[in-house]
Specification:
- The chain is of the alpha/beta class.
- It has a single domain, classed as Alpha-Beta Complex (YbaK protein), CATH 3.90.960.
- It is about 25% helix and about 25% strand.
- The strands form two sheets. Strands 4-2-3-5-8 form a five-stranded mixed beta sheet. The protein has a three-stranded antiparallel beta sheet with strand order 1-7-6.
Length: about 160
């Protein structure tokens, strides 16, 4: 018998908004929380598995960048699109209190408070992308255009 997948807050929010998605479980490796591991577990191209990063700008405060799992955020580009002169990743200890999510389970959906969000432009190259469902071990497969519209995100070239 298949294990029942518990719906996360992110999934419930998508249900409420009547947005189609699939919940896709994967095996967590606590020693390897990288998106590349998630892609391998899912058997998916890393270009379709996106990670959610939280940054702090010198002018606007916290904002979110959602980028392909094997890429690095370009801090200069992220600062520019978010209206900042400079920005940096927030310290790990601030992630849970700021967003309600832990490392390896941070979703752009359902953070404690809505933050300005920027998706890398390659997200729209795919019919479906994968993002964290808000917990380790569970991804949401969703049409990127639906997700971007739902979170009110902008699309920009924000990878190095």
């Amino acid at each position: 018998m298949a294990k029942r997948i518990e719906k996360t807050n992110a999934a419930r929010l998508l249900d409420k908004a009547k947005i189609a998605y699939d919940l896709v479980p994967y095996t967590v490796d606590d020693d390897n929380l990288a998106a590349t591991h998630v892609a391998e577990e899912l058997g998916e191209d890393i270009a379709t598995v996106f990670k959610t990063l939280v940054l702090r700008g010198d002018r606007t405060g916290l904002f979110v960048c959602v980028i392909p799992g094997d890429k690095e955020v370009d801090l200069k580009a992220a600062a520019k699109v978010s209206g900042n002169k400079k920005c940096e990743m927030i310290p790990m200890k601030e992630l849970l209190p700021s967003t309600g999510y832990i490392r390896g389970g941070c979703s752009p959906i359902g953070m404690k408070k809505p933050l300005p969000t920027y998706f890398h432009s390659s997200a729209t190259d795919h019919p479906r992308i994968y993002i964290s469902a808000g917990v380790r071990g569970l991804q949401i497969a969703i049409a990127p255009t639906d997700l971007i519209a739902y979170v009110g995100a902008a699309v920009a070239d924000i990878i190095a």
